[in-house]
Amino acid sequence: MHLRPDVKRELRHIGVGCAVGAVVLSAGWGALAAAGAGIPFGWPVPLSAALGAGAAWLNFFGLAITLQKAMHCESETGRRNLLRMSDIYRKLALGVFLVAMVLIPVFNWVAAAIPLLFPQLTIFAMYAFGRKPQNSGKGGE
Amino acid sequence: MEFQLLAKGIALAGCAIGAGCALIAGIGPGIGEGNAVAAACEAIGRQPECKGDVTSTMLLGCAIAETTGIYGFVTGLLLIFVAPGMFMGMLG
């Protein structure tokens, strides 16, 4: 499926936000461990953070593709069904990911769960730093 | 001994009920996203030249709307997979 340029741009922004967030999380975790906060730090933390950031980006990618498809859907019922199915599958995938992170002792589940909110934090940051719509002021009733 | 067993049972039941309540948060984002897309389609129908703006704003809005769902989902999974182990450890 061909992605619209606006969707591609947002995917790029969220991808950069998730990558930066994973690096900041790992660095902050390492700094806290070095300062003697009593939390263990090792290679599982950056690995889990990177995997969590990847899962969060994939979740956003799935949302973007679904919304793009839904906009081309003719009927209201079809649109709602598409969104519902996408929501169920994405939540299921996130659930499997989190359960795997909790159950597999190699990973750190906290470092994997925090990045799931990085897309939302990136959006808040984008708006906090003065993001404006590209074509604002156009058109009218 | 019996008191400990009762306490463990209550803790486990609390975890299960809490997880169920937390997962209710997943209903809201689904309804919200449906409404957002419906409104966005209507807006694009009225002003097709604003399609780009409407699409990206809707996408970001839907992602924000999902936050509560993800919070609830993570909390529910923690209550199912992590909290019981912690309570069992605390209660011996």
Describe it:
The complex is a heterodimer of chains A (141) and B (92). Chain A is mainly α. Chain A has one domain. Chain A has five helices and no strands. Chain A has helices spanning 5-34, 44-71, 76-103, 109-113, 118-128. In chain A, helix 1 (5-34) packs antiparallel against helix 2. Mean pLDDT of chain A is 86; it is low at 136-141. With 92 residues, chain B is mainly α. Chain B has one domain (14-87): F1FO ATP Synthase, CATH 1.20.20.10. Chain B has helices at residues 2-23, 27-46, 51-81, 83-90. At the A-B interface, helix 1, helix 2, helix 3 and helix 5 of A face helix 2 and helix 3 of B.
**DSSP strand count of chain A:** 0
Could you estimate the helical fraction of the residues of chain A in percent?
over 70%
Number of helices of chain B: 4
Number of strands of chain B: 0
User: For the report, how would you describe the main beta sheet of chain B?
Assistant: none
Oligomer: heterodimer
Main sheet: strands, sense, barrel of chain A: none
Structural class of chain B: mainly alpha
Count of domains of chain B: 1
Most extensive interface = A-B, 44 and 36 residues
Any guess at the CATH architecture of chain B? Up-down Bundle
User: What is the element string of chain A, with H for helices and E for strands?
Assistant: HHHHH
Q: What are the segments of chain A in which pLDDT stays under 50 over at least 5 consecutive residues?
A: 136-141
Apparent shape of chain A:
globular
Give a nutshell description of this structure.
The complex is a heterodimer of chains A (141) and B (92). Helices cover 72% and strands 0% of the residues of chain A.
Topology:
The complex is a heterodimer of chains A (141) and B (92).
Chain A: H1 5-34, H2 44-71, H3 76-103, H4 109-113, H5 118-128
Chain B: H1 2-23, H2 27-46, H3 51-81, H4 83-90
Helix pairs in contact in B: 1-3, 1-4, 2-3
